[in-house]
Structure formats: structure tokens, C-alpha cells
């Protein structure tokens, strides 16, 4: 993260004696990235964070197999047709993925168990509903339009308030703001479309009592359930630059040109082998002869995964795309507006329309995306041919 935070009680110096009211020592836990040569935070536990009393392997649920996108084709998946059988962790339905990232959809109204992803960071986009994110760092209240970014190794759980639907982006490494938005020292620059004030992080410790508490842990070797002697939510304070945070898509400040701007202006985060972009309501391109929707384009190095979260998609009318849809446009395929969309939007501008209301989350990957079973179960088989109608 770009800036340092202190939450709760911490001693004046790191790695010195810090004692509980009863005279015993708080237990330090240093959470650090890249072999402790990058961002880190130092957490102070009431109990030993190393004390486990049981470990058991967990058999993964069926239906997580990926298949190549063959024959190569643009795809349309209707996530609104999917129903989840689990919580916001175990109920994730795999849409697409590769060695860098996995993209899943989940709908649930039940609390998740405690969970730690030790394979990489996660970015969970809340499409609908409100949910309480609880972690060793504290609590974040999240709602519609929030991205919740969770560092690798963070023990956490999700507690929905009613039914919640999310898009889960699971990285094989770390998710960060784009480098071009930051100074050499990590501060957001003035040209960035969001800044530190837009980020929400835990503001106070969250302490829970408990013994023999299970935590589901995902590693590259598979799933394990560790049972901790004491509840891991026992942190009285922490400081550092590594912590979960939320950012709402409505706080993204779109960059507008006279003519249509390419997708990099919408970039919000970057991960290893992929980027995350936010398409938000914004003024239409204002050159008097502009065509204010995307031109036909071919991103020769990327697959484009677009989750349509809200608003109106004038460029896609006639394609079947609607709120809750996912389009996948693979490298090797040129895509763009549906037939007739260009003329329709020019006419709309002539009638005085000056803004677009679309809201979407896009993940561009630099390696091909394979298809998950959930996507194949809700695919619109006619989508690929809609440009030829």
C-alpha cells in the first residue's frame, strides 16, 4: 500500500518488549511481502499466532476444472443465472482463469468460515448487497461497488447482511495500484484517478474470544484446515503499509478525452499478468465529430474479461449483454460495438445526450484465459455471431 497506518496499541519501537496488563508479552507477527524486502505490517497478538492444535487436508469441491477456450470464440456468460451452494469463499463458482489469476462469482447470505489465501492477494468486487469483512487487522464495512483488496496470508471472513453477490479476483501474486499513479516514494500523484483519501482500511482492532478455532488455508499444495489454539482475531494493534482496504468504484475519477480513450485510462489495479479496470459513468467524448463509443479493437496481447455491473450499455445493444453479464473477448479476435450502435449513439448525442451510465469491471490478462465450469453452464451460445446479424 502507498502509505503507513497505525491502528490500536503499538510500542514506540519495533521488536522491543510490549507487555500485556498482566505483565506477559504480546506476541509479534511480521506480515511481509517478497521475502521481507517489500511492504510489511507488524501485528501484536494477545496469544501466540503460531499455536495450532490440529491440521487436516481438505478435499476440494468438484467443478473447479478449467478448459481451453476452444474453438477460439468470444463468449457471453449470464452470471444472473448462477446460484451458489456455499458462502462467499467456499461457494465461489469458477468462471475463468490461468496461472496468474482465477475469476469467480459467488452469491450467499451466510457467514464464511475463517479463511487464509496463502497463494496470492484477492480483490473482491461487491456487485450487490452489504457485507462485513472481518480480519486480524480489523473490520471493513463493504457495500455495492466496493473493491476489497486482501493481502496474501490475511486471516479473514465475510459476514453478509442479507444476500450478497461478488466477483472474486484471486491473484497468483500481489495486487497494487498501477505504478504510473504513484511517486517513487509511493504517494498517489495528481494525475491519478483516485488517491489515499478514497481508500478505507480498518480503523480499530477487532478482538474475538475463542479456543480451537478452525481456519481454511489455501496454498499451492492444496487446501488445509488448521485449528488454532486461540482465536486469531486477538490483535491489539498493528502498524505498517500492508493491510486490507476497500475502494468504491464510484470514487474512481474517469479520464475523458475529446475522442474515445483506450482501456488503460480506466486502470484501477495491477497484478502479476493482469490489470483491473473500472468503467464508470462519465461525460461522453466531446469533439464535435466524435464517435463516443469504443471503436473496433484487437488487444493482441490480452484476453478481455468484462463484468457488467450496472447502467446502460449502448454499444452492446442487440448482443444480449445486460447487468450481470460477463463477456470474454480473447486475443486473436477483433471486437467492438454491435451493428447499428455507432449510428444510434451519434443520433443520441444529437438529441442532447452527454453522458454514459455504464458501470463495469474489466480484467485484462496477458496469458489466455481458460473457461471454468460455472461459465460454461450459463453461456449464451449465440453471442459469437451477433456481429454478423
UniProtKB/TrEMBL annotation:
Homogentisate binds at residues 313, 335. One of its GO terms (biological process) is tyrosine metabolic process. Residues 289-387 form the Homogentisate 1,2-dioxygenase C-terminal domain. Keywords: Dioxygenase, Iron, Metal-binding, Oxidoreductase. The keyword Iron applies. Pfam families: HgmA_C, HgmA_N. One of its GO terms (molecular function) is homogentisate 1,2-dioxygenase activity. Residues 24-248 form the Homogentisate 1,2-dioxygenase N-terminal domain. Fe cation binds at residues 297, 304, 335. PANTHER family: HOMOGENTISATE 1,2-DIOXYGENASE. This is Homogentisate 1,2-dioxygenase. It comes from Nonomuraea mesophila. The lineage of its organism: Bacteria, Bacillati, Actinomycetota, Actinomycetes, Streptosporangiales.
Amino acid at each position: 500500500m502507498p502509505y503507513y497506518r497505525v491502528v490500536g496499541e503499538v510500542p514506540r519501537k519495533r521488536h522491543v518488549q510490549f507487555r500485556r496488563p498482566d505483565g506477559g508479552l504480546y506476541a509479534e507477527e511480521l506480515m511481509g511481502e517478497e521475502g521481507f524486502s517489500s511492504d510489511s505490517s507488524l501485528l501484536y497478538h494477545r496469544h501466540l499466532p503460531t499455536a495450532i492444535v490440529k491440521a487436516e487436508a481438505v478435499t476440494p469441491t468438484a467443478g473447479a476444472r478449467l478448459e481451453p477456450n476452444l474453438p477460439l470464440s468470444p463468449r457471453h456468460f449470464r452470471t444472473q443465472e448462477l446460484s451458489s451452494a456455499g458462502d462467499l469463499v467456499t461457494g465461489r463458482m469458477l468462471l475463468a482463469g490461468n496461472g496468474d489469476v482465477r475469476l469467480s462469482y459467488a452469491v450467499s447470505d451466510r457467514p464464511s468460515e475463517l479463511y487464509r489465501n496463502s497463494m496470492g492477494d484477492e480483490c473482491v468486487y461487491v456487485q450487490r448487497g452489504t457485507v462485513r469483512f472481518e480480519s486480524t487487522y480489523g473490520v471493513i464495512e463493504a457495500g455495492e461497488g466496493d473493491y476489497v483488496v486482501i493481502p496474501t496470508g490475511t486471516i479473514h471472513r465475510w459476514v453478509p447482511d442479507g444476500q450478497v453477490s461478488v466477483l472474486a479476483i484471486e491473484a497468483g501474486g500481489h495486487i497494487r495500484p498501477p505504478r504510473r499513479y504513484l511517486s517513487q516514494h509511493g504517494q498517489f500523484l495528481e494525475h491519478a484517478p483516485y488517491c489515499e483519501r478514497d481508500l478505507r482500511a480498518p480503523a480499530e482492532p477487532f478482538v474475538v474470544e475463542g479456543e480451537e478455532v478452525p481456519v481454511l488455508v489455501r496454498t499451492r499444495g492444496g487446501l488445509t484446515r488448521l485449528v488454532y489454539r486461540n482465536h486469531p482475531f486477538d490483535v491489539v494493534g498493528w502498524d505498517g503499509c500492508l493491510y486490507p482496504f476497500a475502494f468504491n468504484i464510484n470514487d474512481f475519477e474517469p479520464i475523458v478525452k475529446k475522442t474515445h480513450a483506450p482501456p488503460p485510462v480506466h486502470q484501477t489495479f495491477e497484478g502479476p499478468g493482469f490489470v483491473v479496470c473500472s468503467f464508470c459513468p462519465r461525460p461522453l467524448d466531446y469533439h464535435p465529430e466524435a464517435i463516443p463509443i469504443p471503436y473496433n479493437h484487437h488487444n493482441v496481447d490480452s484476453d478481455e474479461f468484462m463484468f457488467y455491473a450496472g447502467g446502460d450499455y449502448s454499444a452492446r445493444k442487440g448482443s444480449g449483454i445486460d447487468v450481470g453479464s460477463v463477456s470474454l473477448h480473447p486475443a486473436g479476435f477483433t471486437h467492438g460495438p454491435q451493428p447499428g450502435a455507432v449510428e444510434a449513439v451519434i443520433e443520441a448525442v444529437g438529441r442532447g445526450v452527454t453522458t454514459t451510465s455504464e458501470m463495469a469491471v474489466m480484467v485484462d490478462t496477458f496469458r489466455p484465459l481458460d473457461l471454468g465450469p460455472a461459465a460454461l453452464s450459463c453461456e449464451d451460445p449465440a453471442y459469437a455471431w451477433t456481429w454478423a446479424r
